[in-house]
Amino acid sequence: MSAVTPYTAEQKRRRALLSLFLVITLMLSALFLFAGRYPKPGFTFPSDWNDPMVTTILLQVRLPRILLALLSGAMLSASGFTFQMLFSNPLVEPGFLGVSQGSAFGAALMIVLGTGSSVFVQLSATLFGLVALLASYVLAQRFRFGGALLRLVLSGIAVSAIFSSALGVVKLVAEPTKDLQDITFWMMGGLWNASWNQVFSILSIVVLCMAVLFSYRWKLNLLSLQEKTSFSVGLNPRRDRLILLVVATVGTTLTISITGLIGWVGLITPHLGRKLFGSDSSFSFPASMILGSMFLLICDTIGRTLLPTEIPIGLLTSFLGAFVFIVILSLKHQEGKA
């Protein structure tokens, strides 16, 4: 019998830890299905299931909301991980190239125009998110300062500023008692409108985007290197980066078109994934997706159960994400001093 090498033992440890996180996420999903404020604050017990309203709430309100939280958390984390690896920058998130700002402008524009349909808001948010990515990419080709990645960073900053200004104009002309409030709530993020229709409206495309990103996970380590190095090992860096950027952007814009702007998920969970599983993206990538689902699920459950009125999930992800971010950086600093 061959001896177990340290590498094999580490692989087994990572698989076991990854399976543990997956099981914990599924268990929390089942548990949080029975957490809410009806028929009374706390958990819904089997003795309450005879009430038809309880059954309706469980199956038509809480279950699609939990599934949307899991799906959105995984997608935002997958996109964040992809962006961080492509730009070799741990401070990058899905909205790095103006995607979030473009989506926010598109959603706000449809709200002000009063289309009366969430479908148009979703389509507009997705469209302008892609426009922001395209604008950043085109500007990066025209800039004459720095390398390819630096030019893309600079173009993203410019595009973000343009769409942020345009969003400000839309908010300025919005009707204060209705449209402006809708825009404000959308930008704070939330899953209070979750339904089976919303889940199914993005399920197929978002799952496809995650599958594509997952299939590229082994290339992400190579694409994080310099372009000449990536090319020397048989990759086409420009083509592969463009594919990954477009796929990550489509998945992100579709997600936030329903959930609103939810920050920090795509920034924090990739950090945690690499912290626990190392730099090998074959493990840290799926770990980030699972942790993203778990993180968003916990934040959403706290937001809808802690107070009589619902707390926007974007506020909770920002608060908890910033706290986790401080802890991670503090631990890294201590490790560096040791």
UniProtKB/TrEMBL annotation:
MF-aspect GO terms: transmembrane transporter activity
Membrane topology: Multi-pass membrane protein
Annotated localization: Cell membrane
InterPro entries attached to this UniProt entry: ABC_BtuC-like, ABC_transptr_permease_BtuC
Main subcellular location of this protein, as a coarse class: membrane
Cross-referenced Pfam families: FecCD
GO BP: siderophore-iron import into cell
Protein name: ABC-type transporter, integral membrane subunit
Naturally occurring in which organism (per UniProt): Sphaerochaeta globosa (strain ATCC BAA-1886 / DSM 22777 / Buddy) (Spirochaeta sp. (strain Buddy))
